[in-house]
Design goal:
Blueprint: H1 2-11, H2 15-29, E1 34-35, E2 38-39, E3 43-48, H3 56-62, E4 66-71, H4 78-81, H5 83-95
Parallel strand pairs: 3-4
Antiparallel strand pairs: 1-2
Helix pairs in contact: 1-2
Length: 99
């Protein structure tokens, strides 16, 4: 519950948005494409340049369909630091998905 309260204040996101994200994530956990800690859904992982948390090999073991990308010259808030690169990568990823 603390996460849902802290994130809106930090990112300026409405509680409705956080609740929607939380519900979506909860729904993914019961989805048939998540078994034994492995999610077979397509995932886009965007990481800061040389991120210590960006371990592509580790992430690929849990998200085999992950598209792992690093945005050069960014820190923790890569979506704010390089919005054009961030948006381009998100749109490119979405264009590859079938709905």
């Amino acid at each position: 519950m603390k996460l849902r309260i802290f994130l809106p204040a930090l990112l300026g996101i409405s509680l409705f948005s956080i609740s929607l994200v939380a519900a979506t994530l909860d729904g993914m956990l019961i989805h048939s494409n998540v078994n034994d800690g492995i999610c077979t859904l397509p995932v886009l992982g965007l990481y800061a340049d040389k991120s210590r948390s960006g371990n592509s090999e580790y992430m690929k073991t849990h998200f085999p369909k992950m598209d792992y990308k690093e945005i050069p010259g960014t820190g923790h808030f890569l979506m704010l630091e390089k919005p054009e690169a961030f948006n381009r990568l998100v749109l490119e990823f979405l264009d590859t998905q079938k709905y």
